[in-house]
Amino acid sequence: MLDTHRLAIWRAVVASGSVQQAAANLQYTPATISQHIIRLQKDVGLPLYERTGRGITPTPVGLRLAEESGEVFSSLRRLEATLDDLRRGPRPRLEIGCFSSAAKEWIPSIVSSVVTEFPTVQFEITLSPATDAEDWHPHDLEIHSEDPSLPPTTIPGFRRQLLTEEDYLLVVASDHRLAGAEAASMSQLIDEAWVDADISNTPAGLVVARACNAAGYEPRFVAGSDDHYAVLAMVAAGVGISALPPLAIRDLPTGVTTVSLIDPTPRRRIVLQTREAVHHHAYVRTAEDLIRARAQSA
User: Fold this and answer.
1) What's the first-to-final CA gap in the chain, in angstroms?
2) Which one of 120, 170, 220, 245 is most buried, counting C-beta atoms within 10 A?
3) In this protein, which residues make up the domain named HTH lysR-type (predicted)?
4) What pLDDT does residue 109 have?
């Protein structure tokens, strides 16, 4: 059986590009590294490297060994985690599904606060599609958008809480004709090229389409992305205009400005859904409290 310690050293040599650099990275002497890989080569029974000048070059066999052994170390990490769970009991996990701006603006401080109080909790943060998407499945906590003009979203086995509501803002390039305006009506935008900020057709994006419909037209989308940073970059480049909620435009790039939207004002509702089966855990209730506090302070 191969020695996993020597195998790890060989992977370090391949990744580092030289014995000397691997030694520096691992805080070993080059002589120690050389001894380990010589012994590994004997154990393998195949040439792992060729000497070239004062260094070595991995052979195809050596490269293949380094590549294929990655799964070995992944499996060892999983085994160590399993044994750790058996010794101490399984680590509690909390899965949160949310949209990208909540993941950036709210989640980091929430995770930090929860793990300070509950150090064993392991978080998994996922960017969720629309709750009616075919590939959607609910997480322990779900932060998602709703259209206030439609009935509230209900998820069996979950309790729903209203977090906040926010008005969308028009996002335009700084040299756009409406830049600097106090407000713009939706009807003023009928001939504009639009950058769609929600190509997955979630409620957050449908809110904008409905506001355009209410003003008597369909938006003329010339580009689109579910990544609001990409949307802002396209607006800055003059591709078109867009409409985004305040949470998504905390960091406006140079060359972009916002204008209030009226007649009608697109508006979204942000809600938190909590799985009933995990609500009794103290760390889940703490996370809920922190999410509510962040939403109300936004």
Assistant:
1) 58
2) 170
3) 2-59
4) 96
Q: Tokens for 64?
A: 């293949």
Rounded CA-CA distance 297/159 in Å is: 22
Q: Over the stretch 184-212, which tens digit does the pLDDT of each residue have?
A: 999 999 999 999 999 888 888 899 999 99
CATH number attached to the domain at 93-163+269-297: 3.40.190.10
Which fold is adopted by the domain 4-82? Arc Repressor Mutant, subunit A (1.10.10)
The answer to whether 100 touches 227, Cβ cutoff 8 Å, is yes
> What's the DSSP call for residue 91?
P
| pLDDT higher than 90, residue 91 | no
Same CATH fold, 169-265 and 93-163+269-297? yes
User: For the chain, which residues make up each domain, given as ranges?
Assistant: 4-82, 93-163+269-297, 169-265
3-state secondary structure of 170: strand
Please name the residues in contact with 120: beta carbons below 8 A apart, sequence gap of 6 or more: 88, 91, 92
In this prediction, residues 216-238 reach a mean pLDDT of 94
At 298, the pLDDT band (50, 70, 90 cuts) reads low
The reply to whether omega before 60 is within 30° of 0 (cis) is: no
Six-digit token string for 251: 């960091």
CB atoms within 10 A of CB 104: 16
